[in-house]
């Protein structure tokens, strides 16, 4: 059990650019979650997958955000045409069905 | 919608002091309740949970009791240590039991 791995740890980009983050869950965890955390706030749910199916999306996930989990293993979160308001820590978590979530250390995005 | 309110921080204590971090929630139905902890530089970790009214979750000397009548889930520890310094998040599961809804977090700083 190597834990949930997120890459990169930090990403600095200019407004209007596209960015992509990767999450590698704990192997055999069939659920994978994305959360966003801004300074002084708790994590906010964005979306989750069960295997390769994206089963729920928060209204926070605008059209500029897309997440995939093509083979039910790793996942990517892409943000198109980044805005300064997208600056946040993006957290990934994984779990077995109805078991506790394990969180990664996150990707810190800064949009200049 | 469902929400979690936890006491503002930071909380500053001396080693061996008693700790209480208040958490109240608003939810339809009967959510599960959680406390997560985030140590500096690390990902969120589940500290304890309770799944129904009057359940007490406990771990590492921390306790919290699910109080349906007061919609509360206060975190307590009888004697804190310097190593308990971290950010503590109260959370509940949404109606579908998939997404977690977090409070804003409370920073605890323990000095020797």
Cα(first) to Cα(last) distance of chain B is: 41 Å
| Shape, principal axes of CA atoms of chain A | globular
Q: Which structural category do the helix and sheet elements of chain B fall into?
A: mainly beta
Question: What about the largest sheet of chain B?
Answer: 6 strands, mixed
As a percent range, the share of strand residues of chain B is over 45%
Order of helices and strands of chain B: EEEEEEEEEEEE
Give me the Rg of chain B, rounded. Answer: 13 Å
Descriptive account of the structure:
- The complex is a heterodimer of chains A (112) and B (112).
- With 112 residues, chain A is mostly beta strands.
- Chain A has no helices and eleven strands.
- Chain A is globular and about 40 Å long.
- The N and C termini of chain A lie far apart (36 Å).
- The mean pLDDT of chain A is 93.
- By secondary structure, chain B is mostly beta strands.
- Helix content of chain B is 0%, strand content 49%.
- In chain B, strands 2, 5, 6, 10, 11 and 12 form a six-stranded mixed sheet that branches. In chain B, strands 3-9-8-7 form a four-stranded antiparallel sheet, with no helix packed on it. Chain B has a two-stranded antiparallel ribbon with strand order 1-4.
- The chains are: A mainly beta (112), B mainly beta (112).
- Chains A and B meet through strand 5 and strand 10 of A and strand 6 and strand 11 of B.
List the helices and strands and how they pair.
The complex is a heterodimer of chains A (112) and B (112).
Chain A: E1 5-7, E2 10-13, E3 19-24, E4 31-37, E5 44-50, E6 53-57, E7 65-68, E8 75-79, E9 88-95, E10 102-103, E11 107-111
Parallel strand pairs in A: 2-11
Antiparallel strand pairs in A: 1-3, 3-8, 4-5, 4-9, 5-6, 7-8, 9-10, 9-11
Chain B: E1 3-6, E2 11-14, E3 19-21, E4 23-26, E5 33-38, E6 45-50, E7 56-59, E8 62-65, E9 75-77, E10 86-93, E11 100-102, E12 106-111
Parallel strand pairs in B: 2-12
Antiparallel strand pairs in B: 1-4, 3-9, 5-6, 5-10, 7-8, 8-9, 10-11, 10-12
């Amino acid at each position: 059990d190597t834990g949930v791995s997120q890459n990169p740890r930090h990403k600095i980009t200019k407004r209007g650019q596209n960015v992509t983050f990767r999450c590698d869950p704990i192997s055999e965890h069939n659920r994978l979650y994305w959360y966003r955390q801004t300074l002084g706030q708790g994590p906010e749910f964005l979306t989750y997958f069960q295997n390769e199916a994206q089963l729920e999306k928060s209204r926070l996930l605008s059209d500029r955000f897309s997440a995939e989990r093509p083979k039910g293993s790793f996942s990517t979160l892409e943000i198109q045409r980044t805005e300064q308001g997208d600056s946040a820590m993006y957290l990934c978590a994984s779990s077995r069905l109805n078991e506790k979530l394990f969180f990664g250390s996150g990707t810190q995005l800064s949009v200049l | 919608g469902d929400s979690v309110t936890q006491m503002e921080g930071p909380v500053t204590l001396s080693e061996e002091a008693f700790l209480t971090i208040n958490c109240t929630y608003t939810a339809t139905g009967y959510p599960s309740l959680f406390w997560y902890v985030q140590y500096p530089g690390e990902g969120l970790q589940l500290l304890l949970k309770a799944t129904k009214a009057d359940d007490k979750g406990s771990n590492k000397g921390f306790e919290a009791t699910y109080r349906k009548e007061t919609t509360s889930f206060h975190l307590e520890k009888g004697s804190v240590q310097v190593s308990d310094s971290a950010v503590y998040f109260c959370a509940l599961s949404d109606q579908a039991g998939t997404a977690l809804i977090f409070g804003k977090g409370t920073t605890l700083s323990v000095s020797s």
